[in-house]
User: Fold these one by one.
Assistant:
Number 1:
Amino acid sequence: MLLAHVQQPVSPAPQDAPAEEPAPAPVALLEVKGVLAAAERFPWAVAAPRTRHWPDGGFLDVALSTVRTEEREGYIERLEAFVEHHRARLEELLHAYGPGSRPAEFGRYALVGQPETLVLLERMETVPFLLRSRWDEALEAVLLADLEFAWGPRICVSR
């Protein structure tokens, strides 16, 4: 066996490593401030700042983490189209569950009326399971479950 190993032909010399290809162009990043500013342009879908339940919507990062690379370019325009398309439904949501409503008096539906919630609702309609998995990793599940109930999505992804 040793003799057979010694008699094997020598491996060819390793070829030079191919030159590295240039890095792909950077993907358009979503600027949180830009998305938030776009959401705040719809006063009929968002509660007044002094009546909002959540002073700093830290949940926006979770929602934006579900925006896939190929969706990033033009996302703000798609968000604006979503809000315009669902205007009546959003107005009803804010009236029924937003600050000052009966259900909100009990501390539920805290996300309704936040500008960031428009992103959550758009993501809920677009990628509900991805949103739920990212949310469950970072935030309290009941907040999203309440929003799902109030919005009445096509698919309920709550447990």
Note: The longest helix spans residues 115-126.
Number 2:
Amino acid sequence: MRRTIARAREDLAMIVARDPSMRSRAEALLHPALPALWAHRLAHVLHTRGHRHTARVLAYGARVATGGIEIHPAACLGRRVFIDHGAAVVIGETARIGDDVTIFHQVTLGAVGWWRDGRREPGARRHPVLGDRVVVGANAIVLGPVTVGDDALVGAGSLVLTDVPPGARVMAPAAEIVQRPSAEDREDAARLLRALATSGCW
């Protein structure tokens, strides 16, 4: 019981430290990451003890309550994992996340797909491993049994399919500023739009 209370206090302190909009631990109680993390801890214990259905129900309830933070009960999360904003975060069954990791919204830590995972050995890892102090930016996707090393940063919008060394930075291409298109370019775009609109692709 003391350990549970200590972890809860640690979570609250972590949220205040990493979210500038939170001014106190009392306010941090309303952060969407908390119900997701606390429900996952209980679901993980239930799952490892063979209560898979109950663990799934708990995980589903947390997903509904948090606006879409979906953490499989079998996934292993370290201490002080911070899920900022939280919307549409997916963490797969065999994912392992280290301590002091920060995950932003719309992040997927997933598998590559049943068509490949079905050929793996039974019990083989299908999801990523994140080391300690990793930061995963908004809308980043990390797929398969890859390892993201300690202190690495996966930038917003990145697609990661291979291992990332410790301390490395993975960055998606930045948006390109295009000058005002010419009249010819605008007419080409209009022709394409008309063709699509009349072909039933909408």
Note: The two ends are 56 Å apart (CA to CA).
Number 3:
Amino acid sequence: MKKITYFMIALSLVWGSAMLPSWGQAKTVHPSREVLLKLFKQNFKDAEKQYQFLAKHLPATKFPKTYFPNTDKYEFSNSDWWCSGFYPGSLLYIYEQTKDPQTYTEALRILKDLEKEKYNTTTHDLGFMMFCSFGNANFIDPKPEYKEILLTSAKSLITRFNPTVGCIKSWDSKPSDFLVIIDNMMNLELLFWATRQTGDSTYAKVAITHANTTLKNHFRPDFSSYHVINYNTSTGLAQQKRTAQGFANESAWARGQAWGLYGYTLMYRETKKPIYLEQAKHIASFILNHPNLPADKIPFWDFNAPNIPEALRDASAASVTASALLELSTYVKGNQSKGYISAAETMLYALSKPPYKAAYGKNGGFLIKHCVGHIPQNTEVDVPLTYADYYFLEAMKRYQALK
């Protein structure tokens, strides 16, 4: 994500209740696996139609960013925006399910516009941008050119690693700052892939060092996470801890908790080191046992938002969390595994129907409604976001693969 200037928000700026009604804390119906599998099959069919609708409104060389339902206007981005990989990635997830050639053709078209970002050394988000897109393409149809693009992307990403700090820099700032956000855990998967492909352990070592430094500095005693850590480039020590996109520095921004959960789950997958599994389990416990988590488990945008239960929900945080929980469930046993699956089922069932799932031709063609990007800067508030769709689709795919 791009550099963000942080400022503390006052209570008067948290105005979610004026935009969206509360859906309360009432008990939700828990569907059977058979019902969910049938529902998810329909969701992929609906996603195919929605994304064909979205493609018709997409200008050439532009990527979908969001849509504002109140004004019926889109916001698009260039290929260098951190979310650019989610649109082709979602198309490829949909194509895997429906085998629709039109969907695949659109994915290949937009990948051509994205390819140049393999040389981008100004962003930490090349994992999001390139692995969610070209990684998915390579999984479906492995090609030498996809491998080259991904390896070049990995090389570009590790140029941002500082061995004194032990992290990949997230946002560029003044020379005395070294800003690292919890989101950066999501970009490490690309580096492990690069090591497997080349045999060069450099990539994996950078990922492990980054994860260890983040583990040391990003988390509070209750296993909630700060959003941003500012390191001293001379000493490598953390000199400031804050939460830029959440309610307050000491609050638990919902999507930040989801990024951490997903990131340490993938770290365990790649290394099998117990410390990462334990961290993922601790984060999952913080999320699922939090008193402010609603019954349908679609979290409020911040677990400490002052106007709960009227605060806005963040469906994107739910999508990421559900996908992470489903993978995490495969690394534990018994009731713990069942609990993670059950929580993910509740989230995905809620996301599969109103008010979160959009009807055909609505929501600008995006699949999921009611996401929150950045309330402190009043951007992308209660709108669709590409990563909500992407991780929703991924979570359904993971659920289908469960035994």
Note: The two ends are 35 Å apart (CA to CA).
Number 4:
Amino acid sequence: MTDLVPVARPMGRNLSPPGVLFAVLGLLSLLLPFVTLRANRIVAGDGAAPWEVAGPFIVTASLLAIAGGLACGLVQIRPALRFVGSLACLGGVFVLLSQGSANLLDGAGTLARVSPAAGFWCLLSVALLLMADAIGGLRPGPGLRLALLLFVLAGLFALLSSGALEHLSPMQEYRAREAGFRTAASRHVALAFGSLAVAAAIGFPLGIVCHRRPGLRTATIPVLSFLQTIPSLAMFGIMIPILGWVGDAVPGAHAMGIAGIGFAPAFVALLLYSLLPVVSNTVAGLGSVPPPSVEAARGMGMTLRQRLWTVELPLAFPVILAGLRIVLVQNIGLAVIAGLIGGGGFGTFVFQGLNQTATDLILLGALPTVFMALVAAILMDILVDLAQRTPKRGNP
């Protein structure tokens, strides 16, 4: 009887190619300035390397956590280990940032500011990419993805509410504008979600009619496509004279808030941008419904309206929902430009920061926008995944 000798698996096959790339990028990021110390919020400052920002114990522990997290990402066959590694890497990055900012500001003067530099942003990006790669390897369902999202949101909330980052310049900008930040956040949400709701109310019926009438579809889709090609800044500018005239000429329009600058032109511009994805995805979704399903419904004696609501729209819903995802993420980003025409939102801080050459004020508007778009995209992806799942039939 021949003994079976186990064949050792080549070591290279156990390595994750993205993990190797992330490890290399992470190590290179350590060579960049981690934070910047400036005399005040406007002037240029001096960068500090990761090992220069805090005491030996904090630096050593943080760098070991970052290196250990990157090392965990090298293991291809254990996505759960890679996920834990991404958390360790994030923990090391933020401990180094919080302790480093407090240490550098000690004795630097009342106007001194500490801001995250290129090294921090690169390490943060590497850790987030490592986390995304690990989650992809876990192949989570909608429930687990939602749980992971809530876990990350809870961790971020705990970090911000703990005061560990209070010494950073973006947080100082926030404290100086806390009431204005809340107003900008509510205005940004109203612009993005409000325009989506109105676009859905207009685009769904229009898409259904375009699906039923090919001639109308041929005329409508090119017009909406043309609106989509107009640059965003030009679209916002076009709305100013049009709505300015409406506010002056139509009785009661100005009292309703319709004017050349402000919320109204930004809202209308976002609405026009939103119509093409909603209408085209409604048409595409209804067009993807299998003809046998429609014929079976017709054979059962269903009316046109019954077939639409009980057969066609449920089957087309995942495609329609994907169109809403595109609109929502697009509008969250485009709403930043509303700050340029007095529409409010986080763009107010972005353009104020540009005018004042205050980088941290720009971050106060840019970071919440990116975060909101990312969370909205994940939640919409979960909804699309749920819509694509068909209920299991029980055994007879």
Note: The two ends are 51 Å apart (CA to CA).
